[in-house]
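Model: Ready when you are.
Researcher: Fold this.
Model:
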Amino acid sequence: MKEDRFVPPEGAFTRTVPIRFSHCDPAGIVYFPHYFDMFNGLIEDWYTEQLGVDYSKLILNDRYGFPFVHIETDFKLPSRMGENLDLTLLLTKIGYSSLSVTIVGHLAGVERLRARLVTAMMSLETQQKVELPRALRDRFEGYLKLIGPTQS
């Protein structure tokens, strides 16, 4: 299998995730559903640390949810217990109530996986989508300007 090289854009939000025993199947390879939990953690950290928006407050106080409404992932190379996988978040599109995001998992410049996902902002009270508030949209647009145009 050809190794895809990946260099994150300048300023792109990246977190290193240690691959633990609890992430792995009996062969010591990450069991794929655990990646989706890692993706959600990356998005939470991105809101709070990169955008300066307290993700827990959005959910617990403001009563908004941000479910995945679409997700597809290409698994290119396995990740194993004991490795430290870098996850980089690339924002690709801002919609009315949704964000299209690409998350790239990479190690030492080699791409291990690439996920394309869409999250939608919804009211936890009505269970309906809601328009992204202007202040939040401004933060997303600022991140797009920081990292530049990206391809999924």
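Researcher: Now this one.
Model:
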Amino acid sequence: MSSKIYSLSVLGLEAERVTVEADTGGGELGSFAMVGLPDAAVSEARERVRAAIRNSAVDFPKLKVTVNLAPANLKKQGSAFDLPIAISILAATGKLRAETVSSKSIFIGELGLDGLLRPVSGVLPMALKAQEIETDYFFCPLANAAEAALVKGLVVMPVKSLRQLVDYFQGQATIEPYQAEEIQLSNLSGPIDFAHIAGQEYAKRALEIAAAGGHNILMSGPPGSGKTLLAKALASILPDLSFSEALEVTKIYSVAGLLGPEQPLVRARPFRSPHHSASMVALIGGGTWPKPGEISLAHRGVLFLDEFPEFPRSVLETLRQPLEDGTIIVSRAAGNLCFPAKFILTAAMNPCPCGFKGDRDKECVCSGSSIVKYERKISGPILDRIDLQVEVPRLGFAKLTAQTAAESSMAVKARVTAARRQQAQRYTNEQVITNSELSSEQVKRLCPIDQASSQLLEQAVDRLKLSPRAFFRVLKVARTIADLSAAEKISVNHLAEALQFRSRMS
């Protein structure tokens, strides 16, 4: 006798439907064979399923059991197949009536040896796929139910144990569909507020522009000048996530296994700050079974790289594609996987190895060759992709002890949110969210400038030797500055400010 149950397998950030077939008889009594290109975790399901069925007061078949995971050419990974394998075996042996198990139901979950269900990763992309294929019921561990219920219209059936599910299909118990709670999104998390940072108005202005348009920013200054503090404060002025953005981010964290039962949805914009010893795989993603890296975990948020030149140059060079395209393609022998990576790169560095080049009060002790070597750690193509380049000087006593209250993050966030709202209205039909995502063609069409601005830009291109990429990035920054001032068109003043941020390190 054979049976057929349906489950899902995650590949990258997407899920594919998998048919779990079970058949009994035709071989050595009591043997358990599994085929269909399973990885080690799936293969080990044989022992987990055998013990879970036995400890759920159900007899495991004494005949040979063969389980097939189809399609056979799709690699299967993870422990989410435990539950569908168990249900398929029970249906094949007559412990469950096949007609009671809907052919349009999806089963996922890891089984403990005692038959209890444990949570698995990647549930959100599975739930989205289940909705796409018009699933009747989505059976999953109770700990994953809140995450699956984020998908509106999907009937999520939370399961505590294999025994509970067996009783449900035998008509001896009921399982109520999970009722999703109302979702509140917020971004004001963390103790650092702009009001707590003395001085540095120029750097704060640059961070406001970066937040409003999604632009990359590099801060350079001596040790202790406040670069790291400013970068951390950036998170407090970013606009709240929309629900669609929250789903994008949650999908990534779900696949990475970084969601807990108490946090089914990522509610605030990510802020990732990997150490400069991070490997290339840790930053961009990868592995035998490719997982998202730091740049994808920072999607729709901030990627902060402190001590920027201390990162290996080979690692920094991998940022070229995601900074340009907003995606990263991880290539492996089995195929290519694409992960989203639309983040605000916020980098901080010292101007030289000792950190005091250009300082008014402390003398730099670095040799010319060591300064050149230090600066060459960051390539021209990477610098060309950074829109705002800011100097953060060391503050004097008067600034540090000033009693005047600085502007709060809440006030700055209000302007940033208003600017983002303008961009959303402007780009309704453009498949972009922020100014930084505009293509060259879109910049020409949507960011027109007048004659005076054109003349200023022409002079800047000649004087600063701007590349075509830098040329369009300046226009995008100018568009953001105009949005912050609620202006419909880019003026000379907006363009001049944008060029001021570009010229600092040109």
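Researcher: Key takeaway?
Model: The chain has a mean pLDDT of 89.
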